[in-house]
Amino acid sequence: MIDLRYKYALIVEGNYYTLLRDVHYQSKDVPFHGVGFDAMEDTELYIVENGLIEKELNIKNLEL
Amino acid sequence: MIGRGIQIPQRKIFAAPAEDLVFLVQGQASGTPTDGTLIISATDDIDVEAAGSLNIVSVTRSNDAGFRRHDVVISIPNNESGNLVFKDKHKIRSYGNHRGGAAPNATFYTGVNTTAPILNWNLNDIPSGVEKIRQSTVLSIILPTTGNEAMPTGLTYLFLNGGNINWTYTGAMPTGLTSLQLSGGNINWTGTTFGRDTAPFTDFGTFVLQNYRNPGDNLTSAELITMCQNLMNRCGNLPNINIREYDLNPSIAAIQGATPDEFGTTEEQIRYWIEQVKNKAPGTRTFTLNTTSI
């Protein structure tokens, strides 16, 4: 059983990205298809939420 | 001395029983099955369960403007069936995402029409706390939809767009509705009443009726006038109005050529009420009838 919790997660679907907050992912056998992280500092990154640039966020230790 | 007190029976506290929201899900007859994704938002995390041959591939819960969005990915083998069960249905606030004061932008159910699980959706079984419903994709095979009853009284947003949405309702829309879009091949809403007629003031954000009547049951002139009068009864601002499936009696040309008169001929009355709606606050809106701007 996969049971993951992230403060933030970036989901990539086609040509756009969705930022999810306070994420809880559960599955029997399918890996989480996004990038989860818990802190946003240091690195500047534009987050595109549902196709629209929402805000500029600082993400720490993000491995895309 | 210790006096004798009155013994108060200890009150037992019972938790409210969890109520289930159950969707019948069926597999397709042939082809290679693919997944379907169902999205709801609720006041809290709720449990999601599968019964029968249904498989829950994954559940992703995330924040949604103060609510908790649930993305549920499901699959089912061909020619088999099962149930998708949401516990605590009274916590559900939207079909599709909610987004608080903004319009939803994620639809309730998506999948490949010919291969995804067939989700049977009964509009008569929507939990009473639901405030928004967005089904914006044509899913004529995988989303057979039925219903003939009123929407939840607290509904503020309704967007139904699909070739297989069979909602045949004759009554009023919920009084708090602020966004209305109907465009479905089998929708037959024959009501004419919607929106608030008392404070608090709430603006209508979107008003589009473009595929909401079955053939032979088009909008009559009397119903059009009633709709306009009901729009004028609202306290808040109006958006651009887009109404189709008017029965063309009298014709669009006759309405366009008529002098507005509340007590005149039918076309003059229609023209009067359309002008009233256009001039209602903020007073800069358009009124499109059967694709023609009046």
Word description of this protein:
Chain A is mostly beta strands and 64 residues long. Chain A has strands spanning 2-13, 16-27, 34-37, 43-49, 52-59. In chain A, the strands form two sheets. A three-stranded antiparallel sheet of chain A has the order 2-1-3, with no helix packed on it. Chain A has a two-stranded antiparallel ribbon with strand order 4-5. Chain A starts with a strand and ends in a 5-residue tail after the last strand. With 294 residues, chain B is mainly beta. Helix content of chain B is 11%, strand content 31%. In chain B, β18 (287-289) and β19 form a beta hairpin. In chain B, α1 packs parallel to α3 (266-279). The radius of gyration of chain B is 23 Å and the shape is elongated. The N and C termini of chain B lie far apart (90 Å). The mean pLDDT of chain B is 91. The A-B interface holds A 9, 20-28, 30, 32, 50 and B 45, 56-63, 69, 73, 105-106. β2 (16-27) of chain A pairs antiparallel with β4 (55-64) of chain B.
Structural class by secondary-structure content of chain A: mainly beta
> Using DSSP, what is the number of strands of chain B?
19
Order of helices and strands of chain A: EEEEE
Structural class of chain B: mainly beta
Helix content of chain B: 10-25%
The number of strands of chain A is 5
Biggest sheet layout of chain A: 3 strands, antiparallel
Write out the strand line-up for the largest beta sheet of chain A, numbering strands in chain order.
2-1-3
What percentage of amino acids of chain B are in beta strands? 25-35%
Features:
heterodimer; A: 64 residues; mainly beta; two-stranded antiparallel sheet; 5 strands; flat; disordered C terminus; B: 294 residues; twelve-stranded mixed sheet; four-stranded antiparallel sheet; 11% helix
Strand and helix map with partners:
The complex is a heterodimer of chains A (64) and B (294).
Chain A: E1 2-13, E2 16-27, E3 34-37, E4 43-49, E5 52-59
Antiparallel strand pairs in A: 1-2, 1-3, 4-5
Chain B: E1 21-26, E2 36-42, E3 48-52, E4 55-64, E5 67-75, E6 81-86, E7 92-95, E8 109-111, E9 118-119, E10 121-122, E11 132-135, E12 145-147, E13 157-162, E14 165-167, E15 179-184, E16 206-211, H1 221-232, E17 241-243, H2 252-257, H3 266-279, E18 287-289, E19 292-293
Parallel strand pairs in B: 7-11, 10-12, 11-13, 12-14, 13-15, 15-16, 16-17, 17-18
Antiparallel strand pairs in B: 1-6, 1-9, 2-5, 2-7, 2-8, 3-6, 4-5, 18-19
Helix pairs in contact in B: 1-3
